[in-house]
Amino acid sequence: MELFLDGEACNMPLRPEATLAEVLDSVWVELPPGRVVTAIRIDGVEYHPAERERFARRTVSSVKDVAVFTRSPEAFVAEKRTEVGRALCLIAEKARHAAMLLRRGDASGGNGLFGALMEELRLVLMLERELGLLAKDDGSSALSVSDLEPVARDLLAAQEKMAWATVAEVLIEGLVPLLEGWAVLRGSPEQKTAEPGVR
User: Fold this and answer.
1) The model's pTM
2) Of 96, 145, 94, 97, residue with least CA distance to 117
3) How many CA atoms are closer than 13 Å to the CA of 101, on its beta-carbon side?
């Protein structure tokens, strides 16, 4: 098996019966301080480091080549924050569509999409928080998540009353501008044009 780290061959002794988990543990020890593993490619198939369980028990003798890719924390955070910006734009577009469905009287479709986009937003904000910890900055670049609290409160109150027109209004007037503002901070300035009758 051939082993590569950031495109360079690693002259590391490899036992045929060793598992990939053991090999990668040895690679981690050799990483320069501060490097972040961003991807692992095994016989041409790329895995996220968090998917370790999918390949950990495979042995050296069963694999032709393994390539490990790393980035500096700064580069990794910058790349992922750009992805956060794109994700926020997509979530804002879904919020617009959910509002459109609610205004057309499709409460089931609108609420289903609303629930899905809020779960996506939760996951994006979790990623954003982890990136902030990794960046170790002074917090000045963090998104002001507290701005979401009054919007979420208004959405919940309207949902409890089944006031779908109000939910649609809060989505358009509260959530969408907030998400688009955050997206700009994360390097995604392009904003979608609202559908006719949505704004």
Assistant:
1) 0.70
2) 94
3) 15
Distance CA(67)–CA(7), nearest Å, equals 7
CB 76 within 8 A of CB 17: no
- Spatial separation of the C-alpha atoms in residues 148 and 170, rounded to whole Å: 12
Both tokens of 51, joined, read 């998917």
Closest CA to 3 of 75, 52, 63, 83: 63
Q: Tens digits of per-residue pLDDT, 70-116?
A: 988 888 888 888 999 999 999 999 999 999 999 999 999 999 999 99
3-state secondary structure of 172: helix
More confident residue, 145 or 108: 108
Residue 33: CB atoms within 10 Å: 4
Instruction: Name the β-bridge partners of 67.
Output: 4, 41
Which of helix, strand or coil describes residue 180? helix
